[in-house]
Amino acid sequence: MLQIAIFSSCFEKRKQFIISLLVLQYGTVLEYDAIYYRKVSLHLKNSDFYFILCFVLPLNFPEEQFCLTLHSIYHMTDQGTPFFKHIGNIPYSPRWEPKQMIAKALQRVLDAEMPFFKIYYILMPVLDKFF
């Protein structure tokens, strides 16, 4: 019985997180999981650089942190998939409200990850031609 209560609580917290993200990032949502509330993809812009940011929530969210992945919309790998980068070291506490989790994650992406992501994925196809 305790496991059902824990599962139900995690489901409600995932749902609350996804709904908060939909409200805060209205207009940027590409897709989201409206059944299990495990994933949402956003189409975002930083300066004139567009990218996709995916949040993936584990079943035991918020006790376990969500995963973030940046996807380029400009360049593909040799296998035909978009370049991507998993984002780590995101400030996180399971006690925070969804709004704070989202704000900290977006701040980390824009401040610490975007400069590298832009340079690396814009220059990589050019550098590949020389090496």
From TrEMBL:
Gene Ontology annotations of biological process type: apoptotic process; cell division; chromatin organization; double-strand break repair; mitotic G2 DNA damage checkpoint signaling; positive regulation of DNA repair; response to ionizing radiation
Superkingdom to which the source organism belongs: Eukaryota
Keyword Calcium: no
A cellular-component GO term for this protein: BRISC complex
Signal peptide per UniProt: none
Keywords: Apoptosis, Cell cycle, Cell division, Chromatin regulator, Cytoplasm, DNA damage, DNA repair, Mitosis, Nucleus, Repeat, Ubl conjugation pathway
MF (Gene Ontology): polyubiquitin modification-dependent protein binding
Localisation: Cytoplasm; Nucleus
Main localization (coarse): cytoplasm
Family (UniProt): Belongs to the BABAM2 family.
Domain notes: Contains 2 ubiquitin-conjugating enzyme family-like (UEV-like) regions. These regions lack the critical Cys residues required for ubiquitination but retain the ability to bind ubiquitin.
Function: May play a role in homeostasis or cellular differentiation in cells of neural, epithelial and germline origins. May also act as a death receptor-associated anti-apoptotic protein, which inhibits the mitochondrial apoptotic pathway.
Subunit structure: Component of the ARISC complex. Component of the BRCA1-A complex. Component of the BRISC complex. Binds polyubiquitin.
Protein name per UniProt: BRISC and BRCA1-A complex member 2
Record lineage: Eukaryota, Metazoa, Ecdysozoa, Arthropoda, Hexapoda
